[in-house]
Amino acid sequence: MRMKSKKILSTVAVLSLAACGGSGADAGSVESAGSSSSAQKGNVRTISAADKQKGAEVHPQLLQEFGGSYSGPQTAYVVRVGQDIAVQSGLGDARSDFTVTLLNSPVNNAFAIPGGYVYLTRQLMALMNDEAEMAGVLGHEVGHVAARHSQKRQKAAKRNSILGALGQIGAAVLLGDSALGKLGQEVLGTGSQLLTLKYSRKQEYEADDLGIEYLASAGYAPQALSTMLESLAAQSAIDARAAGRDARSVPTWASTHPNPVQRVSRAAKNASKLGITGGKRNREAFLKNLDGVMYGDDPKQGVIEGNSFLHPDLKLKFSVPNGFAMQNGTTAVTINGSAGKGQFTTGSYNGNMTTYIASAFKALSGKGKNITYGDIQRTTVNGLPAAYATGRVTSGNSQVDVTIFAYEFSKTSAFHFATLAPAGQANVFSSMYQSIKRMTAREAASIKPRKIDVVTVKSRDTIDSMAKKMAYTDYQKDRFLVLNRLRSNDQLRAGDKVKIVTY
Description:
503 residues, alpha+beta, 7-stranded antiparallel β-sheet, 4-stranded antiparallel β-sheet, 16 helices, 17 strands
């Protein structure tokens, strides 16, 4: 969440459903003479003008939501590799048809959208161990677009009415007719960060198969996707064990309908069927380009530590209740739990809390719609002047309470929570509302960014000694092993290159 943001977060993270089962991007109207599964090199299909226009419209807002483009020297390298693998899909006949972006996001994610736009987060790049793995992940996401999976997924969702009442309210209230709301409706048809649908097992497997084909046609080792999935499955296991300590909600990219372990073995088996024993990996080049990339949260956008969100620039912090999880975005922090959903964000403030709350409700309502809410209540939270109000929205036979709880940090700045909960249960967020407070200068100064450091193993180095250098207080050895795709009984050799996370 950036300090100067003035928009309510509505959506675009749903486009990145690779983290929850796919890219979530609609393949649109790709002009083709063949079936989606034949989207390979040698069967070139042009990217339609409509898709190019749609992608160009969505791209800037995706950048805004996912922390913007990463500005490190790794960018040019990722663009080159991404274009090389994307062109294997046959969606375009030239590398220049594809816009590849390395995102400044701490979430393990990759996705692609219509118009030739392909994305990879720096966090997922850091988990990879060679260039072929990166190409395989990007190829998987392009495969979702080539096979038009999102379009099929959205049709199935409508046909089966899989969205619950709270989800429908979320779509209606949080999307409305705002600019980002229109983006979500036009590209996806439903949902926001509060609504996530997964690709089917069949679709995930098909995207894996296409990614493997793209790897082979580009000259990479086709086994690279399976080794990447292995690392992701291991990372998922660590995340599950640390779930009580780390409230980040979005699971890893591999946590999809197919069991991650089954997915690894299936991808390896299908890669072996191609009969390709070699293929490039380009590990040295990859590690050279990866060295120094930021890892984890960017302090400029705030950090998530356990159940707490801390923003050193804004000098504020708050905590979510047990059972809730957070995802930090450029314009807001999204809060998810089985008992409710919410966001923490900001808006234009002129010193009048009444108009600020009214504007927040209006932003949620959408053009031409209004949420009727009760009297605004005044209070003080940890020395901060605060005010709140709750409205009730009906959808079919269900009702949801929508609450805006706002805080004045200065005469010109305010922040607020916007939450959804089943009618009568808005107090599930009471402890969160009361937790917000200012950070001290010392607390703010203590928050430092982490980075990937590629180091050369020395003769006396062991897995245990290297793991102790990891900039974490928990699961140091586990994190080191997963980061380098190692097992605990492996032996490090002098001269090898390994990754560690440092400050």
